[in-house]
Amino acid sequence: MNKVRTGILGLNPLLDGGFNENSTTVVIGRSGAGKTTLATQFIRRGLHEGQEGIFVSLDENKEQIIREAVEMGWSDILGYLDDEQLVCIDASGREFSTFIRKELPAFVADWKGSNARIAVDPLTPVMWSTKDPYEQRDLIGFMLKQTRRVGTVLCTLEEHGPGDLTNPETVIPMYLADSAIHLRYQSDGGHVRRELKIVKARSSRHSQEAHLYHIVRGLGLIVEPGNYRRTTTSKIPTLLRQMLRDPRVPKDAADRIEKMLEGLTDDDFRELKPEQLLELIRQEYGSD
């Protein structure tokens, strides 16, 4: 699986190298959490590598998006706009069902296979355009499927409610996307605490921890590694291969499981112990 570097300092190691190419990621957070900043960083990282960028704004107008980028210290974005390497689509105020069903496919047909980076900021107006959860799922699913044909997609989503990601307008995009990142932002008496949690990342090893992050002008989001360290040791798979020689495990089952262990490291097993796994294997494949 080819990886796309995110452009966010400290995030790539937590995602086993970055986002999967041609995948969809949804970034969820309250107002002020830094979602648009993260989306802009993602786009700029691609621009610096010669990739084209497409920024679809469903809320703020194009001028506001550019103004915020310049205020963050990213005035180089103006040059990419002039060179048409960056395209901004202002879809704010439109009838979103029509935009997604009729206008988006025509745009995708022109850009299909360009390996661009696409940011959609935010998905919230699409969710609010209908109260029917089936229609919401259909619209978001169609949008993600279409934009993924162009390249790697990152969408933002406003978080409302208790912050436990159980709100229906949060659950649907999180379920449909390949990856989901939660930006938790709390302000108490002037003290701001920001935490990033990777909720899921399909086909990728990723950190299970919550990581502190900061927003710095010019650098954008910076994520602290915390205690997370990706290791490449494979003591557990090696030991498990030896234990599979147990005569109570049929040889054909042992051979299949050995193939499953290829490429795994100790991190993949987390708290599981080889002895526990062997006992489970015996229960599944062994004779009574």
Describe this protein's structure.
37% of the residues lie in helices and 23% in strands. It is α/β, with parallel strands linked by helices. The strands form two sheets. The chain has a nine-stranded mixed β-sheet, with helices on both faces. The protein is elongated, with a radius of gyration of 22 Å.
List keywords for this structure.
288 residues; two-stranded antiparallel ribbon; 11 strands; alpha/beta
- The structure class reads alpha/beta
Task: State which percent range the strand residues make up.
Answer: 15-25%
Order of strands, widest sheet: 5-4-6-7-3-8-9-10-11
Number of helices: 10
Average of pLDDT: 90
Rounded Rg: 22 Å
- Helicity level: 25-40%
Largest sheet: 9 strands, mixed
* Shape designation: elongated
The count of DSSP E runs of length 2 or more, i.e. the number of strands, is 11
Return the string of H and E elements: EEEHEHHEHEHHEHEEEEHHH
- The N- to C-terminal Cα distance equals 41 Å
Oligomer: single chain
Low-confidence stretches: none
